[in-house]
Design a protein that fits this description.
Length: 524
């Protein structure tokens, strides 16, 4: 029955199937056209059907990022795979300027704080002296060139600095048994370590979820962000600390007014106390809501810790490899110190004005930007101009303006833009501090807030901690270079992409992130 029925309806079935197929093909074509609006833009073929995401976040993918402008131009199409829309990878100066500055309202993100960085110099020194004595003790009585895992020391230093000078809180980071350091650092790294989440989204997640500290509703049982489950420990550990600090500052202000902040840890000079004080003094209409202040605390700690320790570790490997550069930097510092009274530290302006140290830090931040890329999503169709026109892969036409459609994910390649040969010249990927010593030759093409590089971004979302970070790094490096000399270990260090780029010893990757360096104390 079914066989004869089937055979009787065959022509009809075939006709119907033909109609359905035609409709399906034409809808599929329309769907692909609308879903793939950037098909004319050259870009890499993804390694998997999942599309570009695995390549974009691949820890071993630094070269994938850095080679993007050279291989595909300054706007590249990122193919979305089976179920995902295409995205764009952008390193074009005019497009970056448009996205980050001119039309930033349509590429949202935000939270901000203002710093009074020069006043923080004594706090930076206080913490850095602790680092110096710990390191001195670690190599004391041992032969010169003692191998020391420096990343751990630098991590402790940067967390302690961002704690004291950023939010007025000590993690007792130099105490090897400090539970608060272990817990908090663990929480930071589990939150951002491998999860490739934009830095500034974390505090919002922290903020949106209460903790069982007696100050709000219990933590949401299934905390998700971007399809990932957030480690609950991170939220449990961080949130109570921020809330406790905030409430303590408010209590001080309520009981003793602004002047009483001087009695709080860090003498009330930390960025957060300044912000809470400014908020306290502001007219009611201008006050920041509590949750914004709290979110800013999270941003400061997250934004300021791994980025800075990763950069400092990079610096040490550079000077360890290049003894000539190391000696020149030391000589510059010794000359500046010789002008000071014995035991007196270089101040903010003096540290800022050391030309070679400045050039090395700038070049390091350009070539080895700790944040490889940031992510944005358009909230409406936006037309962006291009410095380097795209040659359409389909028509060969030259495209000088690109329509980025609403909802498109755009990835701004900070590290790649910093190494584009079109922008920086044929030696763009080389570490050459001298390019900053003769600054008149450098014409800023990128809209980056710091020396025309994208390392700290620009526009409303520029890193508010950049001056803090640069002073912090220069100060730590100046103290270290005057007290110790550094030599490389025999194995090379490999760098992989995390939220900040992460070092591992070649062949010893299983030991985890580390930067062992041979350290010798210098006789003063
Ligand atoms: C070498 C060191 C640093 C680098 C390369 C760096 C880079 C960046 C970048 C690229 C962003 C933008 C992220 C995005 O929009 O998704 C950012 C945001 C931020 N950074 Fe930094 N940063 C550094 C150090 C610091 C320090 C020391 C602090 C604090 C004292 C800090 C505080 C922040 C904050 C609060 C944000 C979030 C701003 C917002 O959400 O609007 N950063 N940083």
């Amino acid at each position: 029955m079914s066989l004869s029925g089937a055979s009787a309806t065959t022509p009809l079935t075939v006709a119907l199937a033909g109609i359905v197929a035609t409709i399906a093909i034409s809808s599929f074509k329309r769907w692909t056209r609308t879903r793939k609006p950037y098909a004319f833009i050259p870009g890499p073929d993804p390694d998997s059907v999942a599309g570009y995401l695995l390549d974009l976040h691949n820890p071993d993918g630094l070269d994938w990022h850095y080679s993007m402008p050279e291989k595909y131009g300054h706007i590249a199409r990122l193919k979305g795979g089976l179920f995902m829309a295409d995205a764009l990878y952008i390193t074009d100066p005019a497009a970056l300027n448009s996205i980050l500055i001119k039309q930033q309202n349509w590429f949202p993100e935000s939270t901000e704080f203002a710093g009074r960085v020069s006043k923080l110099t004594p706090l930076f020194y206080e913490v850095t002296r602790q680092l110096q004595s710990k390191l001195t003790a670690a190599v004391a009585g041992k032969p010169p060139g003692q191998v020391v895992e420096m990343l751990d020391y630098l991590t402790r230093t940067t967390l302690e600095i961002v704690g004291t000078a950023g939010i007025g809180h000590t993690f007792n980071s130099f105490d090897d048994k400090s539970k608060t350091f272990e817990e908090f650092h663990g929480a930071i790294t589990t939150t951002i370590g491998r999860q490739a989440v934009p830095i500034s989204t974390i505090p919002r997640v922290v903020e949106e979820n209460e903790t069982p500290c007696g100050c709000g509703e219990p933590l949401h049982p299934s905390l998700h962000f971007s399809g990932r489950r957030w480690p609950r420990a991170a939220i449990y550990v961080m949130r109570p600390v921020y809330l406790m600090l905030y409430k303590a500052r408010q209590k001080v202000l309520e009981e003793g007014g602004s002047a009483a902040l001087a009695e709080t840890p860090a003498g009330g000079k930390d960025l957060m106390s300044s912000m809470i004080q400014a908020n306290w003094d502001a007219d009611e209409a201008d006050k920041m809501p509590d949750d914004v202040v709290l979110a800013n605390m999270g941003s400061i700690v997250h934004g300021g810790q791994e980025t800075t320790s990763s950069s400092l570790a990079r610096f040490l490997t550079i000077v360890a490899e290049d003894s000539d550069l190391q000696q020149k930097l030391r000589a510059e510092l010794q000359e500046a110190k010789a002008k000071k009274a014995p035991g007196e530290d270089l101040d903010y302006v003096e540290i800022e004005r050391l030309p070679l140290l400045d050039a090395v830090v700038r070049e390091m931040l350009r070539v080895y930007a700790p944040v490889t890329f940031v992510w944005r999503q358009t909230t409406k169709d936006v037309l962006v101009p291009l410095t380097y026109p795209i040659r359409s892969a389909t028509t060969g036409e030259e495209i000088k303006e690109l329509l980025i459609e609403q909802g498109t994910a755009v990835y701004l390649g900070l590290g790649a833009a910093n190494r584009s040969t079109a922008i920086w010249g044929p030696d763009a990927a080389e570490f050459k501090p001298e390019r900053w010593l003769n600054r008149t030759q450098l014409e800023a093409k990128l809209p980056g807030a710091y020396s025309g590089m994208m390392t700290f971004l620009s526009g409303a979302k520029v890193c508010p901690g950049r001056i803090f970070a640069i002073l912090e790094m220069k100060l730590i490096l100046s103290v270290l270079l005057l007290a110790f000399s550094f030599d490389p270990i025999s194995e090379p260090i490999d760098w992989q992409m995390g939220i900040a780029i992460e070092p591992r010893v070649h062949g010893r990757e299983k030991e985890g992130i580390q930067v062992p360096v041979c350290v010798t104390t210098l006789s003063v």
